[in-house]
Design brief:
The protein contains twelve helices and five strands. Helix 10 packs across helix 11.
């Protein structure tokens, strides 16, 4: 039984900014040591549960990586085609998500906030039956072309699925009805919805994330960063991907990876 997204999103290093500064100050040669706002045994249990890496879709992922180079020539040109030149900030994304949620008449059930420590651009979760749904947005700049796709992914898929689930007989009682965890399927659908508004439909970022998890299972952070660096025009985006792969480890120089990032590509393939 695999951990669902609400738990996964809460496991984020609490010292990301400090670790990032030290990593780049070392000329990308010293693996970061992550801290978490959880007991060590809780983090160890999380990583034990989420470190069973899947290799079934690796041939498909590698095929798409090659296809990107054949069609676009470089990751930089692909990003320019996919995301365009314009940038916005997290306040713009906040306004767009707020309008999207308001159109669905769900504002009374949702809190939206901008946070500093987040490995993804945005995420949706809910911590108890009594609490509101939380939509967190990572502070910083983002491509203007991604705003609609993020709304379709996080609100149009995840939030609506979570709201709908609360009306179902099996809500918080899936085992009784013999229902498997839908998380990978949901992430696959959310990823497909991400591409509705984007000009390219090539699942290159998701295939790269899947590939990175496979590689991270057998090498440390520094080696992974060096291996993935050629796939990114921006080294900070490479850093973020490596952090997502090594989420749940404290000493990231060790081999090991969280399969969480594989769900997007695997869900699409399935």
């Amino acid at each position: 039984k695999r951990t669902g997204p609400s738990v996964n999103m809460r496991v984020c290093p609490s010292n990301l900014a400090e670790a990032k500064h030290k990593f780049f100050a070392s000329d990308c040669q010293e693996a970061p040591v992550f801290r978490y706002n959880y007991l060590d045994e809780e983090i160890d249990a999380y990583f034990a549960e989420t470190s069973h890496v899947c290799y079934e879709c690796l041939p498909d992922a590698e095929r798409i990586l090659k296809l990107m180079y054949a069609d676009y020539g470089s990751p930089k040109r692909f990003s320019e085609q996919l995301y365009g030149p314009g940038t916005l900030d997290s306040d713009d994304l906040f306004d767009a998500i707020q309008a999207y949620v308001d159109d669905l008449n769900l504002m009374e059930r949702v809190n939206i906030c901008i946070v500093e420590q987040l490995l993804s651009i945005a995420c949706v979760n809910k911590f108890s039956n009594e609490s509101k749904f939380q939509i967190k947005i990572r502070s910083g700049a983002l491509s203007g072309a991604t705003v609609q796709s993020i709304c379709d992914h996080e609100v149009g898929t995840h939030l609506l699925r979570m709201v709908n689930d609360e009306s179902q007989t099996w809500h918080r009682n899936r085992d009784r009805y013999g229902l498997s965890n839908p998380w990978t399927t949901e992430e696959g659908l959310a990823t497909l919805n991400t591409y509705i508004s984007l000009p390219s439909k090539l699942l290159y970022p998701q295939a790269l994330m899947y590939f990175a998890v496979c590689r991270g299972s057998s090498i440390g952070f520094v080696e992974l960063f060096q291996e993935l660096r050629s796939h990114f025009a921006d080294p900070e985006r490479c850093w973020t991907m490596c952090c997502r792969v090594k989420r749940g480890l404290r000493d990231t120089s060790k081999p090991g990876a969280s399969y969480v990032g594989q769900a997007y590509f695997k869900g699409c393939v399935e």
